[in-house]
Amino acid sequence: YASEMNASVEEKLVLLEGMRSALESCTDSQDCGGAACQFHLLYQPKIDLRSGRLFGVEALIRWNHPEHGLISPLRFIGLAEESGMIVALGEWVVRSACAQGQAWRAAGLPALSISVNVSARQFEEKRLVERVAQALRDTGLPPEALEVEVTESSIMRDLGRSVDKMRELKAMGISLSIDDFGTGYSSLSALKSFPISRLKIDKSFVSDLADSADDQAIAMAVISLGHKLNLRVIAEGVETEQQRAFLSANDCDEMQGYLFSPPVPAERIAAMLAQQPGA
Ligand code: C2E
Ligand code: CA
Ligand code: CA
Ligand code: CA
């Protein structure tokens, strides 16, 4: 048992060291996203359910490890959180996503909202707002084009401070959404105080939507709660036409999922935007 534990600690240390050097080469290299860069972002389209239009994308990080190949963020984001490296890694994500958003704008493509995931420790970090503001200034992306996705659990770790921070981001013009909604513990009274514009129904409630009466009830409740609070509601992990039809019939505003598109490289997003009717 002890040796198994050591192995996993050792594994973690190796992964962590790999992450540190990968991040270094990523932030050093002038052509970030080029061959030297092991991290890159994919972008998943967000679709308006009523019009069918692509109105935004979520940036999702990928790590292409020289020996282990593609490593899922589910495997390294937790470790980056634990070690504190998430602050630097998250800053790279924000800067890269803003730069990409600005590149799409400069190419004359229709306006797009770009969302980034900000995890608990990154959200709590003192200089978060400053770092995001700096990324916007350096890239020229208008704050209105940026959305920050935070989870209920991140916010609830220090509710008062979180609400202040969300207000600062909002005052800059950035939008906020609650990610994985329904899987955390925010009270309804806390939710009322969040300066957010969107609730994101977690994919765990979407996957069985066609068969599970419970999941249907949850989805409907989140949609109606969101609308009563004047928020937009987006469902993630939409994979089937049945799920889309249910969400649509129940007045959900937006969706994201494999049914429309998995996360894809930036070039694919540009192609999708250029092909949209009216583009
Ligand atoms: P999330 O924020 O809840 O993101 C949704 C996840 O669902 C993504 O997994 C996405 O690729 C996946 N997904 C999208 N559509 C479908 C679908 O139709 N079916 C299914 N089964 N899955 C779908 P991914 O990219 O592996 O990311 C996993 C988690 O890692 C994210 O969950 C997020 O919590 C975290 N993450 C990813 N990128 C970042 C990042 O840049 N920063 C931070 N802090 N966390 C990130
Ligand atoms: Ca997310
Ligand atoms: Ca999430
Ligand atoms: Ca989720």
TrEMBL record:
<protein>
    <submittedName>
        <fullName>PAS domain S-box-containing protein/diguanylate cyclase (GGDEF) domain-containing protein</fullName>
    </submittedName>
</protein>
<feature type="domain" description="EAL">
    <location>
        <begin position="12"/>
        <end position="277"/>
    </location>
</feature>
